[in-house]
């Protein structure tokens, strides 16, 4: 995965996570929905981090 792709996914995940937390605290969304959104964002960020970890910044596979 290219570095820019990984960065965009991680930054979007942070924005959504912070927005979800603020929305849950202010009552804009239901608590259960906030938990589901948080879980989905966490899984997406984990997959992105793993793919970024096993590849070079240019997207080629990293040596083992």
Q: Please, could you describe this protein's structure?
A:
It is a single chain. It contains 2 helices and no strands. The protein is an all-alpha fold and 64 residues long. The chain has one domain. It is elongated and about 45 Å long. The model has no long low-confidence stretch (mean pLDDT 86).
How is the secondary structure organized here?
Blueprint: H1 3-26, H2 31-53
Helix pairs in contact: 1-2
Main β sheet profile: none
N-to-C terminal Cα separation, in Å? 16 Å
Q: Report strand %.
A: under 5%
Helix and strand content put the structural class at mainly alpha
Average pLDDT rating: 86
**Helical proportion, percent range:** over 70%
Q: Provide the gyration radius in Å.
A: 15 Å
Number of helices, counting only DSSP H or I runs of 4 residues or more: 2
Unreliable segments of 5+ consecutive residues: none
Task: Categorize the overall geometry.
Answer: elongated
Number of strands: 0
Q: What is the H/E string?
A: HH
Please, how many domains? 1
List keywords for this structure.
64 residues, mainly alpha, 2 helices, 0% strand
């Amino acid at each position: 995965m290219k570095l820019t792709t990984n960065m965009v996914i991680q930054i979007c995940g942070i924005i959504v996570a912070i927005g979800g937390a603020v929305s849950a605290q202010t009552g804009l969304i239901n608590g259960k929905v906030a938990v589901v959104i948080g879980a989905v964002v966490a899984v997406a960020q984990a997959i992105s981090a793993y793919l970024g970890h096993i590849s070079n910044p240019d997207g080629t596979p990293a040596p083992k």
